[in-house]
Amino acid sequence: MSEKIPVTVITGFLGSGKTTLVRHLLGHARGKRIALIINEFGDIGVDKEVLAGCGDETCREEDMIELANGCICCTVADDFIPTMKTLLERDERPDHIVIETSGLALPQPLIRAFNWPEIKTEVTIDGVVTVVDAAALAEGRFASDEEAVDAQRKADSMLDHETPLGELFKDQLVSADLIIVNKTDLVDESGLAPVEAELRAAMRPGTGIVRAANGHVDTVALLGLGMASEDDLDGRESAHELEHGGEGHEHDDFDSFSIRLPAGSREALLKTIEETIRAHDVLRLKGFAAIEGAPARLAIQAVGPRVNAYFDRPWKDGEKRETALVVIGESPLDRDAITASLQAA
Ligand SMILES: Nc1nc2c(ncn2[C@@H]2O[C@H](COP(=O)(O)OP(=O)(O)OP(=O)(O)O)[C@@H](O)[C@H]2O)c(=O)[nH]1
Protein backbone atom coordinates (compact mmCIF):
# COMPACT_ATOMS: atom_id res chain seq x y z
CA MET A 1 0.00 0.00 0.00
CA SER A 2 1.24 3.45 -0.81
CA GLU A 3 2.03 5.84 2.01
CA LYS A 4 -0.77 7.94 3.41
CA ILE A 5 -0.96 11.44 1.97
CA PRO A 6 -0.39 14.05 4.69
CA VAL A 7 -3.12 16.62 5.20
CA THR A 8 -2.68 19.97 6.93
CA VAL A 9 -5.87 21.36 8.43
CA ILE A 10 -5.84 25.14 8.79
CA THR A 11 -8.31 26.66 11.20
CA GLY A 12 -8.68 30.13 12.68
CA PHE A 13 -11.26 32.84 13.04
CA LEU A 14 -12.60 34.80 10.12
CA GLY A 15 -9.99 37.30 9.12
CA SER A 16 -7.16 35.87 11.18
CA GLY A 17 -5.08 35.32 8.05
CA LYS A 18 -5.73 31.74 6.90
CA THR A 19 -5.96 32.57 3.22
CA THR A 20 -2.87 34.74 3.46
CA LEU A 21 -1.00 31.84 5.06
CA VAL A 22 -2.18 29.38 2.42
CA ARG A 23 -1.18 31.75 -0.33
CA HIS A 24 2.31 32.04 1.10
CA LEU A 25 2.49 28.28 1.50
CA LEU A 26 1.51 27.63 -2.11
CA GLY A 27 4.02 30.17 -3.27
CA HIS A 28 6.79 28.40 -1.33
CA ALA A 29 5.80 24.79 -1.89
CA ARG A 30 9.35 23.70 -2.70
CA GLY A 31 8.24 21.49 -5.54
CA LYS A 32 5.51 19.70 -3.63
CA ARG A 33 2.22 19.26 -5.45
CA ILE A 34 -0.28 20.64 -2.98
CA ALA A 35 -4.02 20.21 -3.37
CA LEU A 36 -6.21 22.67 -1.56
CA ILE A 37 -9.70 22.13 -0.20
CA ILE A 38 -11.42 25.36 0.78
CA ASN A 39 -14.36 25.29 3.11
CA GLU A 40 -15.63 28.79 2.64
CA PHE A 41 -19.10 30.12 3.25
CA GLY A 42 -20.98 33.32 2.73
CA ASP A 43 -19.01 35.09 0.05
CA ILE A 44 -18.27 31.89 -1.82
CA GLY A 45 -15.24 31.96 -4.03
CA VAL A 46 -13.40 34.90 -2.52
CA ASP A 47 -10.59 32.85 -1.04
CA LYS A 48 -10.25 30.91 -4.25
CA GLU A 49 -10.02 34.15 -6.19
CA VAL A 50 -7.32 35.45 -3.87
CA LEU A 51 -5.36 32.24 -4.20
CA ALA A 52 -5.79 32.01 -7.96
CA GLY A 53 -4.08 35.37 -8.20
CA CYS A 54 -0.92 34.15 -6.58
CA GLY A 55 0.75 33.72 -9.96
CA ASP A 56 2.76 30.68 -9.01
CA GLU A 57 2.60 27.47 -10.99
CA THR A 58 2.00 25.57 -7.77
CA CYS A 59 -1.40 27.26 -7.45
CA ARG A 60 -3.02 25.22 -10.17
CA GLU A 61 -6.70 25.77 -10.65
CA GLU A 62 -7.49 22.05 -10.75
CA ASP A 63 -5.82 21.55 -7.39
CA MET A 64 -8.22 23.90 -5.66
CA ILE A 65 -11.48 22.40 -4.59
CA GLU A 66 -14.25 24.28 -2.90
CA LEU A 67 -16.62 22.44 -0.65
CA ALA A 68 -20.17 23.28 -1.56
CA ASN A 69 -21.42 23.75 1.95
CA GLY A 70 -20.33 26.10 4.64
CA CYS A 71 -19.69 23.73 7.44
CA ILE A 72 -17.64 20.59 7.15
CA CYS A 73 -18.96 19.28 10.43
CA CYS A 74 -22.51 19.13 9.09
CA THR A 75 -21.60 17.58 5.78
CA VAL A 76 -18.83 15.11 6.45
CA ALA A 77 -20.61 12.20 4.84
CA ASP A 78 -22.26 13.98 1.94
CA ASP A 79 -19.60 16.34 0.88
CA PHE A 80 -16.23 16.07 2.57
CA ILE A 81 -15.61 12.32 2.30
CA PRO A 82 -16.68 12.18 -1.38
CA THR A 83 -14.49 15.22 -2.15
CA MET A 84 -11.52 13.52 -0.54
CA LYS A 85 -12.17 10.27 -2.39
CA THR A 86 -12.39 12.04 -5.73
CA LEU A 87 -9.09 13.75 -5.01
CA LEU A 88 -7.46 10.46 -4.06
CA GLU A 89 -8.73 8.70 -7.17
CA ARG A 90 -6.96 11.13 -9.50
CA ASP A 91 -4.12 9.77 -11.60
CA GLU A 92 -1.81 12.47 -10.38
CA ARG A 93 -2.20 12.32 -6.63
CA PRO A 94 -1.08 15.32 -4.63
CA ASP A 95 1.99 15.13 -2.38
CA HIS A 96 0.18 17.05 0.31
CA ILE A 97 -3.36 18.27 0.91
CA VAL A 98 -4.22 21.52 2.69
CA ILE A 99 -7.72 22.12 4.01
CA GLU A 100 -8.64 25.71 4.83
CA THR A 101 -11.66 25.52 7.09
CA SER A 102 -14.26 28.20 7.46
CA GLY A 103 -13.39 30.33 10.45
CA LEU A 104 -16.46 29.23 12.34
CA ALA A 105 -16.68 25.51 11.86
CA LEU A 106 -15.70 23.29 14.73
CA PRO A 107 -12.45 21.58 13.80
CA GLN A 108 -13.17 18.49 15.90
CA PRO A 109 -15.63 16.74 13.57
CA LEU A 110 -13.23 17.27 10.68
CA ILE A 111 -10.36 15.75 12.60
CA ARG A 112 -12.47 12.74 13.53
CA ALA A 113 -13.58 12.34 9.90
CA PHE A 114 -10.08 11.11 9.14
CA ASN A 115 -10.95 7.95 11.05
CA TRP A 116 -13.73 7.12 8.61
CA PRO A 117 -12.80 3.83 6.93
CA GLU A 118 -13.34 5.32 3.44
CA ILE A 119 -10.28 7.51 3.80
CA LYS A 120 -8.36 6.33 6.86
CA THR A 121 -5.98 4.11 4.96
CA GLU A 122 -5.13 6.79 2.42
CA VAL A 123 -4.72 10.06 4.28
CA THR A 124 -3.51 11.21 7.66
CA ILE A 125 -3.51 14.59 9.34
CA ASP A 126 0.01 15.97 9.22
CA GLY A 127 -0.99 18.71 11.62
CA VAL A 128 -3.80 21.00 12.68
CA VAL A 129 -2.65 24.59 12.31
CA THR A 130 -4.67 27.32 14.02
CA VAL A 131 -4.11 30.90 12.91
CA VAL A 132 -4.86 33.61 15.46
CA ASP A 133 -5.06 37.36 15.02
CA ALA A 134 -2.45 38.72 17.41
CA ALA A 135 -3.63 42.29 16.95
CA ALA A 136 -7.21 41.44 17.86
CA LEU A 137 -6.15 39.26 20.77
CA ALA A 138 -3.87 41.96 22.13
CA GLU A 139 -6.97 44.12 22.34
CA GLY A 140 -8.98 41.39 23.99
CA ARG A 141 -10.92 40.28 20.95
CA PHE A 142 -10.96 37.04 19.01
CA ALA A 143 -11.25 38.65 15.60
CA SER A 144 -10.81 42.10 14.20
CA ASP A 145 -14.54 42.46 13.64
CA GLU A 146 -16.43 40.15 15.93
CA GLU A 147 -19.80 41.54 14.99
CA ALA A 148 -19.16 40.75 11.33
CA VAL A 149 -18.10 37.26 12.32
CA ASP A 150 -21.25 36.77 14.28
CA ALA A 151 -23.49 38.29 11.61
CA GLN A 152 -22.01 35.97 9.01
CA ARG A 153 -22.48 33.03 11.29
CA LYS A 154 -26.10 33.89 11.92
CA ALA A 155 -26.71 34.29 8.18
CA ASP A 156 -25.50 30.77 7.44
CA SER A 157 -28.12 28.22 8.30
CA MET A 158 -25.50 25.48 8.13
CA LEU A 159 -23.67 26.80 11.14
CA ASP A 160 -24.36 26.28 14.79
CA HIS A 161 -25.71 29.59 16.03
CA GLU A 162 -25.65 28.84 19.68
CA THR A 163 -22.01 28.23 20.40
CA PRO A 164 -20.47 31.45 21.67
CA LEU A 165 -17.50 32.75 19.75
CA GLY A 166 -15.22 32.32 22.73
CA GLU A 167 -15.99 28.66 22.84
CA LEU A 168 -15.27 28.22 19.16
CA PHE A 169 -12.01 30.04 19.59
CA LYS A 170 -11.00 27.74 22.41
CA ASP A 171 -12.08 24.73 20.36
CA GLN A 172 -9.75 25.89 17.62
CA LEU A 173 -6.90 26.31 20.09
CA VAL A 174 -7.25 22.91 21.71
CA SER A 175 -7.46 21.28 18.29
CA ALA A 176 -4.16 22.74 17.23
CA ASP A 177 -0.81 21.03 16.87
CA LEU A 178 0.66 24.37 15.86
CA ILE A 179 -0.62 27.87 16.54
CA ILE A 180 0.40 30.65 14.17
CA VAL A 181 0.34 33.99 15.96
CA ASN A 182 -0.27 36.12 12.88
CA LYS A 183 -0.33 39.90 12.36
CA THR A 184 2.67 40.36 14.63
CA ASP A 185 3.53 43.42 12.55
CA LEU A 186 0.66 45.21 14.29
CA VAL A 187 1.66 44.37 17.85
CA ASP A 188 4.84 45.11 19.76
CA GLU A 189 6.64 42.74 22.07
CA SER A 190 4.86 43.99 25.17
CA GLY A 191 1.56 43.24 23.48
CA LEU A 192 2.59 39.83 22.19
CA ALA A 193 3.80 38.37 25.47
CA PRO A 194 0.38 38.40 27.19
CA VAL A 195 -1.29 37.11 24.02
CA GLU A 196 1.04 34.14 23.96
CA ALA A 197 0.60 33.55 27.68
CA GLU A 198 -3.14 33.45 27.12
CA LEU A 199 -2.77 31.03 24.24
CA ARG A 200 -0.50 28.78 26.28
CA ALA A 201 -3.05 28.70 29.08
CA ALA A 202 -5.79 27.59 26.68
CA MET A 203 -3.95 25.24 24.34
CA ARG A 204 -2.96 21.65 24.97
CA PRO A 205 0.49 21.36 26.54
CA GLY A 206 3.15 20.84 23.92
CA THR A 207 1.37 22.70 21.13
CA GLY A 208 3.84 24.70 19.06
CA ILE A 209 3.61 28.47 18.73
CA VAL A 210 5.11 30.31 15.77
CA ARG A 211 4.94 34.06 15.19
CA ALA A 212 4.20 35.36 11.73
CA ALA A 213 3.38 38.45 9.77
CA ASN A 214 1.29 38.09 6.64
CA GLY A 215 1.41 34.33 6.92
CA HIS A 216 5.14 34.17 6.29
CA VAL A 217 5.96 30.86 7.86
CA ASP A 218 8.68 28.63 6.48
CA THR A 219 7.11 25.69 4.66
CA VAL A 220 9.44 23.38 6.57
CA ALA A 221 7.92 24.56 9.84
CA LEU A 222 4.40 24.20 8.56
CA LEU A 223 4.42 20.93 6.62
CA GLY A 224 5.82 17.59 7.69
CA LEU A 225 4.74 17.75 11.33
CA GLY A 226 3.73 14.08 11.12
CA MET A 227 1.25 14.35 13.96
CA ALA A 228 -1.43 11.83 12.84
CA SER A 229 -3.80 14.03 14.83
CA GLU A 230 -6.78 11.78 14.11
CA ASP A 231 -5.14 9.12 16.29
CA ASP A 232 -4.50 11.59 19.09
CA LEU A 233 -7.89 13.01 20.03
CA ASP A 234 -7.45 13.28 23.80
CA GLY A 235 -7.64 16.86 24.97
CA ARG A 236 -8.98 18.09 21.63
CA GLU A 237 -12.64 17.74 22.58
CA SER A 238 -14.76 20.75 21.82
CA ALA A 239 -16.42 22.59 24.67
CA HIS A 240 -19.72 21.27 23.36
CA GLU A 241 -18.44 17.72 23.60
CA LEU A 242 -17.17 18.43 27.07
CA GLU A 243 -20.55 19.76 28.14
CA HIS A 244 -22.41 16.83 26.69
CA GLY A 245 -20.19 13.98 27.64
CA GLY A 246 -18.35 13.80 24.32
CA GLU A 247 -17.57 10.77 22.29
CA GLY A 248 -17.44 8.11 24.93
CA HIS A 249 -15.81 10.42 27.46
CA GLU A 250 -17.36 11.36 30.73
CA HIS A 251 -16.95 14.95 31.81
CA ASP A 252 -18.83 15.39 35.03
CA ASP A 253 -16.36 17.86 36.37
CA PHE A 254 -18.04 20.98 35.01
CA ASP A 255 -20.67 22.86 36.87
CA SER A 256 -22.97 25.63 35.70
CA PHE A 257 -25.75 27.74 37.09
CA SER A 258 -27.67 30.82 36.08
CA ILE A 259 -28.30 34.07 37.86
CA ARG A 260 -30.72 36.93 37.26
CA LEU A 261 -29.99 40.53 38.16
CA PRO A 262 -31.92 43.79 37.80
CA ALA A 263 -30.90 46.35 35.16
CA GLY A 264 -27.77 48.28 36.04
CA SER A 265 -24.84 50.25 34.69
CA ARG A 266 -22.75 48.71 31.93
CA GLU A 267 -19.40 49.72 33.38
CA ALA A 268 -20.20 48.45 36.85
CA LEU A 269 -21.53 45.16 35.54
CA LEU A 270 -18.58 44.41 33.27
CA LYS A 271 -16.08 45.34 35.97
CA THR A 272 -17.86 43.14 38.49
CA ILE A 273 -18.02 40.24 36.05
CA GLU A 274 -14.31 40.52 35.34
CA GLU A 275 -13.46 40.63 39.03
CA THR A 276 -15.77 37.72 39.80
CA ILE A 277 -14.26 35.59 37.04
CA ARG A 278 -10.76 36.24 38.34
CA ALA A 279 -11.66 35.68 41.98
CA HIS A 280 -13.53 32.43 41.43
CA ASP A 281 -11.79 30.80 38.45
CA VAL A 282 -14.89 30.94 36.29
CA LEU A 283 -14.18 29.42 32.89
CA ARG A 284 -17.12 30.86 31.03
CA LEU A 285 -19.75 33.41 31.74
CA LYS A 286 -22.37 34.29 29.18
CA GLY A 287 -25.77 35.82 28.87
CA PHE A 288 -27.62 39.06 28.29
CA ALA A 289 -27.71 42.16 30.39
CA ALA A 290 -30.26 44.88 30.86
CA ILE A 291 -28.52 48.23 30.95
CA GLU A 292 -30.35 51.18 32.43
CA GLY A 293 -31.54 53.52 29.68
CA ALA A 294 -30.44 51.20 26.83
CA PRO A 295 -33.09 50.09 24.33
CA ALA A 296 -31.06 47.00 23.38
CA ARG A 297 -29.86 44.07 25.41
CA LEU A 298 -26.17 43.67 26.03
CA ALA A 299 -24.80 40.28 25.06
CA ILE A 300 -22.01 39.18 27.33
CA GLN A 301 -19.41 36.59 26.45
CA ALA A 302 -16.54 35.92 28.75
CA VAL A 303 -13.87 33.30 28.35
CA GLY A 304 -11.59 33.27 31.30
CA PRO A 305 -10.84 36.85 32.29
CA ARG A 306 -11.73 38.26 28.86
CA VAL A 307 -15.17 39.81 28.92
CA ASN A 308 -16.85 40.79 25.68
CA ALA A 309 -20.04 42.77 25.52
CA TYR A 310 -22.06 44.11 22.63
CA PHE A 311 -25.64 45.19 22.07
CA ASP A 312 -27.01 42.37 19.95
CA ARG A 313 -30.60 43.42 19.42
CA PRO A 314 -33.29 45.71 20.80
CA TRP A 315 -35.44 44.43 23.61
CA LYS A 316 -38.70 43.03 22.30
CA ASP A 317 -42.08 44.27 23.43
CA GLY A 318 -43.13 42.41 26.52
CA GLU A 319 -39.66 40.95 27.12
CA LYS A 320 -38.52 41.19 30.70
CA ARG A 321 -35.64 43.65 30.93
CA GLU A 322 -33.36 41.89 33.33
CA THR A 323 -29.85 40.48 33.26
CA ALA A 324 -29.57 36.72 32.90
CA LEU A 325 -26.14 35.12 33.07
CA VAL A 326 -24.88 31.57 32.97
CA VAL A 327 -21.74 30.80 34.90
CA ILE A 328 -19.64 27.77 34.01
CA GLY A 329 -16.59 26.46 35.77
CA GLU A 330 -14.95 23.42 37.14
CA SER A 331 -16.92 21.62 39.77
CA PRO A 332 -17.61 22.56 42.51
CA LEU A 333 -18.40 26.20 41.84
CA ASP A 334 -18.93 28.34 44.91
CA ARG A 335 -22.38 29.42 43.80
CA ASP A 336 -23.21 31.52 46.83
CA ALA A 337 -19.98 33.51 46.69
CA ILE A 338 -20.20 34.01 42.92
CA THR A 339 -23.84 35.07 43.16
CA ALA A 340 -23.05 37.53 45.97
CA SER A 341 -20.13 38.92 44.00
CA LEU A 342 -22.23 39.47 40.85
CA GLN A 343 -25.09 40.98 42.84
CA ALA A 344 -22.72 43.70 43.98
CA ALA A 345 -22.79 45.22 40.46
N1 LIG B 1 -1.25 43.76 8.97
C1 LIG B 1 -1.47 42.48 8.68
N2 LIG B 1 -2.55 42.14 7.95
C2 LIG B 1 -2.74 40.83 7.66
C3 LIG B 1 -1.84 39.83 8.09
N3 LIG B 1 -2.30 38.64 7.65
C4 LIG B 1 -3.43 38.88 6.98
N4 LIG B 1 -3.71 40.21 6.97
C5 LIG B 1 -4.86 40.87 6.38
O1 LIG B 1 -6.00 40.50 7.13
C6 LIG B 1 -7.12 40.34 6.27
C7 LIG B 1 -7.69 38.93 6.45
O2 LIG B 1 -6.73 37.99 5.98
P1 LIG B 1 -7.18 36.60 5.32
O3 LIG B 1 -5.96 35.86 4.97
O4 LIG B 1 -8.22 36.84 4.27
O5 LIG B 1 -7.89 35.96 6.56
P2 LIG B 1 -8.76 34.62 6.58
O6 LIG B 1 -8.55 34.02 7.92
O7 LIG B 1 -8.50 33.76 5.42
O8 LIG B 1 -10.20 35.25 6.46
P3 LIG B 1 -11.56 34.49 6.02
O9 LIG B 1 -11.28 33.66 4.81
O10 LIG B 1 -12.48 35.63 5.77
O11 LIG B 1 -11.91 33.67 7.21
C8 LIG B 1 -6.65 40.58 4.89
O12 LIG B 1 -6.95 41.92 4.59
C9 LIG B 1 -5.16 40.38 4.98
O13 LIG B 1 -4.46 41.12 4.05
C10 LIG B 1 -0.70 40.24 8.87
O14 LIG B 1 0.11 39.43 9.33
N5 LIG B 1 -0.58 41.56 9.13
From TrEMBL:
It catalyses: GTP + H2O = GDP + phosphate + H(+). CDD domains: CobW-like. One of its GO terms (biological process) is cobalamin biosynthetic process. The keyword Nucleotide-binding applies. One of its GO terms (molecular function) is hydrolase activity. Residues 235-254 have a biased composition (Basic and acidic residues). Pfam families: cobW (PF02492), CobW_C (PF07683). Residues 233-254 are annotated as: Disordered. InterPro entries: CobW, CobW-likC_sf, CobW-like_C, CobW/HypB/UreG_nucleotide-bd, P-loop_NTPase, Zinc-reg_GTPase_activator. Keywords: Chaperone, Hydrolase, Nucleotide-binding. GO terms for cellular component: cytoplasm. Zinc chaperone that directly transfers zinc cofactor to target proteins, thereby activating them. Zinc is transferred from the CXCC motif in the GTPase domain to the zinc binding site in target proteins in a process requiring GTP hydrolysis. Belongs to the SIMIBI class G3E GTPase family. ZNG1 subfamily. This is Cobalamin biosynthesis protein CobW. The gene is cobW.
